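User: Design a sequence. Structure:
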């Protein structure tokens, strides 16, 4: 019998729908290094899925004040990019059987 696991879904969306989503690996802590990797993948998703928004650069990333989000490393990355898009970054905890 398999034990129950908790899975975390990271979802980035805007007014048009989901821009990027991914499930965290089992037992993954959301730290600044992991979050930086997620932001890089988000950037790639925006380039592919919404090239007009990527070109315009008229968008923002809105996230909460979790330590991974407010770390100096992440803040420097965001300041350099000027081009990360999402209306919200939402963490949803799901349970699987």
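Assistant: Done.
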């Amino acid at each position: 019998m398999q034990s129950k696991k908790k899975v975390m879904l990271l979802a980035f969306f805007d007014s048009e729908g989901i821009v990027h989503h991914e499930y965290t690996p089992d037992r993954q802590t959301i730290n600044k290094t992991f979050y930086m990797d997620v932001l890089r993948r988000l950037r790639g998703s925006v380039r592919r899925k919404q090239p007009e928004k990527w070109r315009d650069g008229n968008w923002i990333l809105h996230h909460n004040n979790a330590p991974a989000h407010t770390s100096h490393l992440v803040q420097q990355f965001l300041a350099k990019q000027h081009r990360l898009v999402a209306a919200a970054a939402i963490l949803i905890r799901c349970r699987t059987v």
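Residues 5-96 form one domain. The chain has one domain: 5-96.
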